[in-house]
Every structure is written in C-alpha cells, then in structure tokens.
C-alpha cells in the first residue's frame, strides 16, 4: 500500500475520533514576568548568549497570554475538537514549592472556560520542559526531590482544573528533558553530564508515577491520565547485520525502553542497565520506585516526526552525529559512542528530518503490541517548512498538507490493523518559539507575523479544518 491514499479512495475516520492541535507554554505564552511568574530553565537558557538561534527568547513568543481568547476563537473556526496545551510550572508555583499563585492559576482557568464555551476539549500537559529555575538551582531533575516537587505541583493543578478538564498528561517527551537537557546540552538547562541525564530519566519516571497518584487523589475518577513519549522508530542500516541490530537495540532502549519499561511493565530493560553500566550503577533506583512508577495509565500519547537510522560505528569515522537532535560535541545517547546515525532517505523538512509516514504506523503498532488494550493518541505530529505569505497575504504550504495527509493516512491504517487510536493532535497550532532554533523554524498550521502578531491560517490549517469537520481526509491536491 502507498504512503497516502489516492483521492479516489477516501480516508475516513471513526465518528468518535478526536481532531486536535497542540502547543506548549514557553513556546507561545510570552508574558514571562507577569502575574508572579518567575524564570524557568528556558528563560535562563535562552538568555544565555549562544544558546539559541539569533539570541531569540520566549519573552514575548506569540503573546498567547494576552491573545488567548482570539486564539481559541481561531481554534473554533478551524473546527478543532480538542486543544492540548501545557502549563507553565513557574507561572502557578514560582519557586517550584509551596502554595500556588492564584493569578497564574486564573489564566489557565480562563483558558479552560473559553475552550469549553467553544465546545473544545482541553487536554492539559503538566510538564513541557520548563522547570522552575529555583528547582534547577537545587540540582534539577538529577535530584530525587524534584520528582516530589512535581507531585505537589500536579496536585495543585488537579485541584484547580480537575472538575473541568478530563484529559491530563503528566510529562511531554521526557527523553528530551533528560538527554537534550542534561547530556548533549542543546536544551535547557544545558548540562553535559551523561550520568546525570540517566538519573534525570529515572526521576522523570518517578515524577510521572508520583504525579499520577497525586492527580488521582484529587480528581474525579472519570478523568484520563497519560503521558506523551517520543520513542524513536529505530531502524538498522543493514537489517542482516548483527552489529547494526545491536546498535538499533541500544538506541531503542535509550529512547523508549527507559520510559515505557518501568511505566508500562514495572522494570527497566536488562539490556539498558547492562549497556549503561559504564556510566551509572543505577543506585538512584530506590526500593518501591518501580511500583510507584508503574501506575496504571488510562491512555498513552505518542509523538512522531521522523524515523531514526543507525548502524554500528566505524571507529575511523569522526564526522558529525546525524541524529537530528541539534549540534553538540556531547552526545544525548549515554554509552552509545559505538552507534552511528545516518540520514534517512527521502524528502526532508526544514529540520532536515525525512518524511516517512510508515514510521508513524510502525510506532503505533509497536505500542498496540506493547500495551494491548491501552487507548493511544498521536499527541504530536507535524513538520517545519519555510512558509512565507504571498502577495495577497495568503500562506500556501502544500508540503505540509501532503505531510499531514500521509501521516493521517498512516494513523487510519493502524486503526484498520487493530490499534485503538482515539485522536490526533497536529503540531503545532501556531508558529512559535522553536527552542534552540528560536523563530527560524515554523511548525504552525497558522502563520504568525512575529512583528505584528497577526495570525493567518495556512492552507494546511484550512485543509485540516475540512478534515476535522468531515472526519475524512480531503484531496491534498485540491487545497
């Protein structure tokens, strides 16, 4: 079967399938010093010279903090049924400890009320990488105490919004938080300590377990608790090479097994523990931790952009690491210097990531087997392109339309193959601050003129709006 259905073969979705879009707090909110908010690690990192493209910061971003009503109206115009957003921890609990700041909580109360008034289901992510700076000053995620602080924060949010928000995610892409933040240093807080990164991964897992328990203690039983993982779809360069297969297993453990092992199965993969034994003895795992982490989840979020192609490393090859996770002399893959990364074939986005919808189908089916019966959501999927308005002010992005059509078709194939996929959240609703890439990369379905903050739906947004309304993918050539 081809990667995308032909126009003569309509791709339709179940009536209950949820059509959404996603954002994150630091990437869109701005207002970083308003209403009691204090710096997060991303404020500190982006204000450190040389850490982001052009010295860009999220100080203003796309000013969603002040424009949220207009943004929610735009979501309604685009027929969105759900909106996944994250909460700025330091906006509601500035030091990462103690009581909440009600002005910060009030923003999220107003946002939720606005969404519900427009018939849009809010989906809250508690942590999308913006740790309060005071907690990083105390050691950050490599310190066990941070997981307990997260549980207190989760309880605050559950008490504030649990009566109106039914969909909750504890963490977004803990792999990025641990390994880009503490191993390669291309994300905040910018540390390059492999052993600390592995500790951070464990404490993020612990935070998920403790946070899940805290949410359940204060919210109605009907509410759904999950998290979003960006497990790599790892492929060996030579599927018949034992060395390449071993390289793929190592990266699969480091990207996926390190999280889904304890969360879904109550144990870390033995192959992971053995492979990383030269970096850490895993003494950070205390008695009872695995039981705490292994809380039942109501669903699982999957984030996918591109597959990962690896082989055993050639000792003589000293070229740059082509893993798609930013340039750094320090690897985000502890104890994996014997693995080489390769550019996957085919068309590429502005991020240099190959366009391959088969990887999304593969990822979904992997978790359909990994956790039979667990509902799945695609919580991020999208692409960056060099979008520009034409002479009439319109923004045509046929590449993104084709990308979405291909990947949504892959979701439909996974459903046909038995996977319980309940919804899809396009990344991203708006052009925004793209972390270390600053404002150079545009993932949004809605174009933002950063000088004027004017929003213009791209042709992909209009295409997606038609899909959401009909529950069927329009012809990508007809947009």
UniProtKB/TrEMBL annotation:
<protein>
    <recommendedName>
        <fullName>Beta-glucosidase</fullName>
        <ecNumber>3.2.1.21</ecNumber>
    </recommendedName>
</protein>
<feature type="active site" description="Nucleophile">
    <location>
        <position position="380"/>
    </location>
</feature>
<feature type="compositionally biased region" description="Basic and acidic residues">
    <location>
        <begin position="315"/>
        <end position="328"/>
    </location>
</feature>
<comment type="similarity">
    <text>Belongs to the glycosyl hydrolase 1 family.</text>
</comment>
<keyword id="KW-0624">Polysaccharide degradation</keyword>
<dbReference type="InterPro" id="IPR001360">
    <property type="entry name" value="Glyco_hydro_1"/>
</dbReference>
<dbReference type="InterPro" id="IPR033132">
    <property type="entry name" value="GH_1_N_CS"/>
</dbReference>
<keyword id="KW-0378">Hydrolase</keyword>
<dbReference type="InterPro" id="IPR017853">
    <property type="entry name" value="GH"/>
</dbReference>
<dbReference type="InterPro" id="IPR018120">
    <property type="entry name" value="Glyco_hydro_1_AS"/>
</dbReference>
<keyword id="KW-0119">Carbohydrate metabolism</keyword>
<keyword id="KW-0326">Glycosidase</keyword>
<dbReference type="GO" id="GO:0008422">
    <property type="term" value="F:beta-glucosidase activity"/>
</dbReference>
<dbReference type="InterPro" id="IPR017736">
    <property type="entry name" value="Glyco_hydro_1_beta-glucosidase"/>
</dbReference>
<dbReference type="Pfam" id="PF00232">
    <property type="entry name" value="Glyco_hydro_1"/>
</dbReference>
<feature type="region of interest" description="Disordered">
    <location>
        <begin position="311"/>
        <end position="340"/>
    </location>
</feature>
<keyword id="KW-0136">Cellulose degradation</keyword>
